[in-house]
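chain below, 520 aa
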Amino acid sequence: MLSVDHYELIRRKRLVDGLSIRAISRELGHSRKTIRKALKHATPPGYQRCQPVALPVMDKVGQMVHAWLEQDRQRPPKQRHMAQRIYERLRDEHSFKGSASTVRRYVSKLKATGQEVFMPLQFDPGEEAQVDWHSGWIIENGVQRKVQFFCMRLCYSKASFVIAYERADLVSFLDGHVRTFEYFGGVPRRLAYDNLKSAVIHVGKGRDRVLNETFKKLRCHYVFETRFCNIARGNEKGDVENLAKRSERTYLTPLPEVTSLDELNAHLLACCKKDLDLPGARPHQDRLRSALLEEDRRGFIELQATTFEACEPIDTTIDKRSLVTVATNSYSAPTRWAHHPVRVKMFVDSVELWCEHQRVAVHDRCHGKGQYILEPTHYLSLLRIKPGSLDNARPFKGMLKGNGRGWGRDFDHLRRELEYRYEGEGTKKFINVLLLFTEYVDDEVRQAVCRCVQRRAFSDEAVLGVLRHEPIDHTHRPLDLSDRPELLHVGNGIRPAAMYDRLRHCQNEEVIASPPRHSR
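prediction:
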């Protein structure tokens, strides 16, 4: 087979030197057919088959092998036919006489030609964003633990937003949307998801989906459209899949060492803003993502005047212990609402209890299991009729110790003195002091008890008297007028007493100067 150098020599002698084909053939020793081929093709065309290679040994079993591979598409990936297994079945079940290498070449060719073909996509500004979850590890207060991350990426500008949550539940899913829309400054016209449980209850045939009612409320509030991927087709939302990889390998590498999720989210927000200085994807690689994001915003749906309430509502009843149990944790309510219907609003970081259209209690949300989240003031009124439960009631455990959680050591001292001085009535008097928390501010009650202990005035009447008649000192910060320079030179309002003497003198002169009035 002639090389490129041979072709070049032949073409030069014919096209430059003007030799005939016969002369070139005699000089170089090539046939005239070869000379004409070199003149026809600038470079050696190589060997080309006129017909595909015949595989007579596979002709009888080819359709069977193809059928086996098609059936494998519906079976678990780890239980599909390999080429060696196909050869063994052909040999044992169908008396196949060919070799294993022949089967391997045949199967390899079938798989290569049967692979999926993808369509290149292009999106308009503000047209679509893609949403997904991914998990990652962090070091929080010296302990390594797993955290869930909500991700959203715009398909046009590739602007991204990532935020961390304790768990990938419905409430976090809703809250992630609200925070992301606020960060982007608008709502993409369409959002793409896989079939995650926070949005999809049931996957039907084709594009048929049964959606979560709360998710439908979110979609109704922001009026965006949705697109759901086919099952096991993560490539249909490749932008957010790439964001998840970048988050794991860049934002979270090395493992962030933080003291709380708030600190972690501040780090993630800084990473997302830093990525806006990167170039966009083709064909916009000559522009920054920050500029492309501005074009995205012009195509967004405007944010609503009211923010969507990102919570999971749960309708239940407050039990006889004045507790509401949701997600295995029990939250307290004021005892007057026991046995009443209640709507629980589960937010990401708080739990609100609503009875008769009014909020009756708010708690920090507990992400543990089987915990009690109790507010002692909810049960104080119950002590009037159940004073014996003071020592063993769960809400009051540890409240008399000076451990930073409870009322403080002054209350412990007051109780001992009351029970010593008044014997059986001492506990009731102490409960009367505790009931003051339902009428006065917590700090005021604590300061009043502290004063009475210092004065050795051990009685509930003394504490009540301090609250009613003695002002409680509150620490006030100086008024900041840095944003009102016109008020910086205003006086303090103090006037000298002499001005009142002058005013009185002026009034006396007016009385003397005025004529007397005569009655009829």
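The longest helix spans residues 498-513. The radius of gyration is 41 Å.
thats it, cya
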